[in-house]
Structure formats: structure tokens, C-alpha cells
């Protein structure tokens, strides 16, 4: 294990990686309940999506851990599942046809991952955008945690406002948040994980955490319930394009953000990029054949990194826990139903991801504003991909009008134009 994952070289231990894997898993396990809930609204059987979600997560995360050796987990992406359901509703097509679009996008994704296009893109992204992406994801994660816990709630006049501190889940979330902050301040190893466990125990004794059983047999997977020919007969080419484009940039941005946070970027480069980028491409393709929407690298992986995860062993632990989750769906459903367990971790991890802000050259406006635009739009639009798009549009534009157009890699101009077209004509969110 030490030799395969180079644990000492990365300053970590099997115990640390194990705790990091559990931490990442607990912060993202909601997906195996939420994803079936969203896709079942489009007519896909709940049990089919439950198994497809786990299968795609296991394949993508195992590939990431064993071949790319990064502490990054893969699973069906939030946002893409909602878009899937909206396509079924707005186009009035069977869900099997939309799975056909996901499959075609996945195949194109695999082909692109075999080429150097995505690697070139990562190298071409300037540091100011990379730090902006990392910080924007951090704010996005923190905002998700605040909403999940009820610390902030919707408000028609101000978009959001402070929540009701009389709500039991909000009180428990604040308890978990301050407990975890104290553990971190005292430099307790595994503080995030310990905080989640204690919060869960308190929630159980205050009747907020309910278990309807412990073990259950997993449903039988459904294979190839899709209609590829229907994609062409219904002319859903733009849907394929939207799935492909958003997934590529959502995943690329997340991987850069998590790798940057873990200190795994080497002079702005992303080592073993092809293997890392292949992980979500395979998960998307295979997942579509079992019945789920496109997969993506998970921003919750940053929780595991914050807990000390630095190698692929963290991802392998996450994959194993997803396999076990097939047999413990009642417990998983209970944990997922109590946001107070995971919300504090997301808020704290958001803080950890702000570190890159100090490395942005704020005095150089054409560097600073695109980073600021990313940081601003990710949480406000609830979309990593939209934030990245704004950055890719404003950066080359700002450099061009500042007379520094030659400093910009040509591929950024290409994607800047693509993003403008995509946002106007093919909005995916």
C-alpha cells in the first residue's frame, strides 16, 4: 500500500487516508438517495437509479484511486440530474432517449479524454483563474452547507436571509459547526470526522436521526435501458452538447480546485491528468447504461482532503464504502436525511478553500476581475460550470482590451467563444 500510493512521499498514513475516505463518503453519500429521487420524477424507477448511482460512483472513483491516484471521488453530478429531468419534461421524450444522449456524451467524453485536449486546457488556464475556481468552489460548498442546515433560508426580497434558530436541525447544525471548529482549533486529528460522529449521536438522542432498519438486500441492476436511435429521431443534439460541455468543465474545475487544495498541482500542471479525466468519462458512459445522469468529480472530495487525504487510497476507501452502501441503504437514508451531520463540514471546508485568494494578483485588474467573477457567480448561480464559463469569457476579453492578448493561450479564445454561444443558445442550468 505504501509503495503503490507513495504514502510517505505525500506525508500521509493509511489511517489518515481511511478517515479522509470516510469523511468524503459521508459528505457525498446523499447522492445515492437524492439522485434517484430527482430522476424518478422523470419516470425512471427509483431502485434502478439507486443501483446505477452506486455502480457509476464505484467505477469512476476506483479508477481515480487506482490509476490517477488522487483523493477525488466520482459520482453522478448534481445539476446534471435536474437538467436530465427537465429535458424529459420540456421535450416530452421517454427517459430512455435522454439516457441515449448521456451515453453519446459519455462516449465523446472518453474519446476527448484519450486525446490531449483536456490536458492542454488545464495547462492553458492561468493561475488567477485556477485560484478563482478553487475559491469559488469553496464559497459554493459553504453556501450549500448554510442552506442545508437552515442557517440561511430563501427570502423573496433579498434572495437569502438568516434562518430560524428555533429549528432543531439548525440548532444541531450550529452545535456541530462550533464543536468541529473547537476540535480543529485544538488540532485534534480527524476533527471533521469526529465532529460528524458526535453530531449524529446527539441527533439520534434528540430524535432527529431515525433508522428504519440496518441491512437490506440491494435491488437488481437494470442494464442498457436506453434508446440511442431516439436521440437522432428526436434531434436532441444540443442536449448531447450541453451534457458534454457542462460535465467537462464542471469536472475539470473541480479536479483543479481539489488538487490545488491538496497541494498536488506541480507548477500549475496536473500530473496524471489523462487517467484522472478518464475516470468521470468512464463513469458517465457506464452509468448511462445502468440508468443515471452524467458523473462528475465531487466538490465534497475537498472534505476528505481537509481531513488529510492526499492519495488514491482515499478514493479507494470511498469506492468500497459505496459498495457497502448497497447493503446498508436504511442507514445511508437516515444519514442523508439529517443535513446537520454534513453541513458543518461543508461550511468549514469552504473556508479551507479560500487560501488561494492570497495568491491572486489583485493589483492587476485584468487578472483580478475574471477571478472575482468566478468567485461571485459560482455560489450565486449554484453552478460550477457557469462560474467557469464567466471566467473563460472575461479573462481573454480583459487581456485583449488591455493590450495583452498575446499572453492568452489560443485555446482560451476558442472556449471563450464556445461558452458565449453555449450560455446564449444552450443553457444547461
Describe this structure in words.
The model has no long low-confidence stretch (mean pLDDT 90). The chain has 20 helices and 4 strands. The chain has helices spanning 2-5, 14-28, 31-40, 46-68, 80-91, 95-114, 117-124, 127-149, 168-185, 191-205, 228-233, 237-261, 273-290, 301-306, 312-325, 329-336, 343-352, 365-381, 384-401, 410-425; strands at 74-76, 152-155, 159-162, 295-297. The protein is mainly alpha-helical and 429 residues long. The strands form 2 sheets. A two-stranded antiparallel ribbon has the order 1-4. A two-stranded antiparallel ribbon has the order 2-3. The protein folds into 2 domains: 2-125 and 212-337, no CATH class; 356-425, no CATH class. α3 packs parallel to α5, α4 runs antiparallel to α15 and α8 (127-149) packs antiparallel against α17 (343-352). The longest helix has 25 residues, at 237-261.
For this entry, give a set of tags.
3% strand, mainly alpha, globular, 429 residues, two-stranded antiparallel sheet
Summarize, please:
This protein is mostly helical and 429 residues long. 67% of the residues lie in helices and 3% in strands.
Amino acid at each position: 500500500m505504501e509503495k503503490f500510493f507513495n504514502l510517505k512521499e505525500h506525508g500521509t498514513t493509511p489511517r489518515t487516508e481511511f478517515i479522509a475516505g470516510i469523511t468524503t463518503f459521508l459528505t457525498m453519500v446523499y447522492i445515492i438517495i437524492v439522485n434517484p429521487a430527482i430522476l424518478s420524477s422523470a419516470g425512471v424507477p427509483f431502485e434502478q437509479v439507486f443501483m446505477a448511482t452506486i455502480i457509476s460512483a464505484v467505477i469512476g472513483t476506483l479508477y481515480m484511486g487506482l490509476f490517477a491516484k488522487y483523493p477525488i471521488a466520482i459520482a453522478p453530478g448534481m445539476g446534471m440530474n435536474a437538467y436530465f429531468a427537465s429535458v424529459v419534461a420540456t421535450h416530452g421524450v421517454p427517459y430512455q432517449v435522454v439516457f441515449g444522449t448521456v451515453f453519446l456524451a459519455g462516449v465523446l467524453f472518453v474519446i476527448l479524454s484519450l486525446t490531449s485536449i483536456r490536458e492542454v486546457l488545464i495547462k492553458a488556464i492561468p493561475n488567477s483563474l485556477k485560484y478563482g475556481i478553487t475559491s469559488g468552489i469553496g464559497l459554493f460548498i459553504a453556501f450549500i452547507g448554510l442552506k442545508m442546515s437552515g442557517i440561511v433560508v430563501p427570502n423573496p426580497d433579498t434572495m437569502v436571509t438568516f434562518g430560524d434558530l428555533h429549528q432543531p436541525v439548525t440548532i444541531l447544525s450550529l452545535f456541530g459547526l462550533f464543536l468541529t471548529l473547537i476540535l480543529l482549533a485544538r488540532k485534534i486529528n480527524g476533527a471533521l470526522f469526529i465532529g460528524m460522529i458526535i453530531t449524529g449521536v446527539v441527533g439520534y438522542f434528540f430524535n432527529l436521526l431515525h433508522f428504519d432498519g440496518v441491512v437490506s438486500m440491494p435491488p437488481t441492476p437494470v442494464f442498457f435501458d436506453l434508446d440511442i436511435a431516439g436521440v437522432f429521431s428526436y434531434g436532441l443534439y444540443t442536449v448531447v452538447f450541453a451534457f458534454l460541455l457542462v460535465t467537462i468543465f464542471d469536472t475539470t474545475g473541480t479536479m483543479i480546485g481539489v488538487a490545488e487544495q491538496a497541494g498536488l498541482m506541480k507548477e500549475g500542471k496536473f500530473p496524471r491528468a489523462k487517467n484522472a479525466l478518464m475516470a468521470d468519462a468512464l463513469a458517465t458512459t457506464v452509468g448511462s447504461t445502468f440508468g443515471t445522469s452524467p458523473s462528475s468529480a465531487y466538490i465534497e472530495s475537498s472534505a476528505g482532503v481537509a481531513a488529510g487525504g492526499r492519495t488514491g487510497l482515499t478514493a479507494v476507501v470511498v469506492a468500497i464504502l459505496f459498495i457497502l452502501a448497497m447493503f446498508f441503504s436504511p442507514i445511508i437514508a437516515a444519514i442523508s436525511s439529517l443535513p446537520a451531520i454534513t453541513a458543518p463540514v461543508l461550511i468549514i471546508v469552504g473556508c479551507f478553500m479560500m487560501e488561494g485568494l492570497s495568491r491572486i494578483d489583485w493589483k492587476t485588474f485584468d487578472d483580478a476581475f475574471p477571478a472575482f467573477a468566478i468567485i461571485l457567480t459560482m455560489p450565486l448561480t449554484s453552478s460550477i460550470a457557469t462560474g467557469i464559463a464567466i471566467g473563460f469569457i472575461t479573462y481573454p476579453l480583459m487581456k485583449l482590451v488591455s493590450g495583452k492578448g498575446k499572453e492568452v493561450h489560443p485555446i482560451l479564445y476558442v472556449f471563450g467563444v464556445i461558452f458565449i454561444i453555449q450560455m446564449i443558445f444552450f443553457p444547461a442550468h
